[in-house]
Amino acid sequence: MHAYTHHIGDFNTATLHLSRLERSIYRDALEFYYVNECGLDASDFGLLARRLRCDTPEEKAALQFVLDEFFDLDIESAQYVQPRCERELADYRAAVAASGAVKANVNKRQQQHRDERKQMFAALRKAGQVLPWNAKVAEVRAAYAKLKAHQDLSRTSHAPVTANHSPFPVPLNQEIPPQPPCRGGGCGAGCANR
What we know:
This protein has helices at 8-14, 20-36, 45-51, 57-70, 83-126, 137-156; strands spanning 40-41, 72-74, 79-81. Helix content is 56%, strand content 4%. The longest helix is centred in the middle third of the chain and has 44 residues, at 83-126. β2 and β3 form a beta hairpin. It has 194 residues and is mainly α. The chain contains 6 helices and 3 strands; from the N terminus they run ααβααββαα.
């Protein structure tokens, strides 16, 4: 955790009875708690004092007073825990978990957007239209929509789509005999396909 909410009024009200040294040590203890995202190690008081930069006997006595006043000793975990810090950390962990779900959704939407853009660029390129790689999405979509509209119009026209399609409707019960290929080379007067 790299930041936490510090309510100045609450802190001042809760620490009015402390000396400046005790307030400073309490603030350092809170920050150490949040940075490590766990209670303060109670297994070795000397090590905890060193971590909180309490070197003199006066500073160590102030640390012990702060621990007794504001922290609960959890014997099972051998830690000094602070209820408000635990609530803040629980909220932080929940927000991080929710953020992970949000990030997954954002990544999924971004991937869908990239795939759509890639598909539009490929269709435009296939049709002979080349847009710059950094074209705005609105430009790409407009060009793609124009291409699609043109393709839809060409499908609805009555022109033959392929050489096998006849512009004239053929009744379903009538067969059209196939035309033999032209072998004369010039489709002259003797050609049967004339």
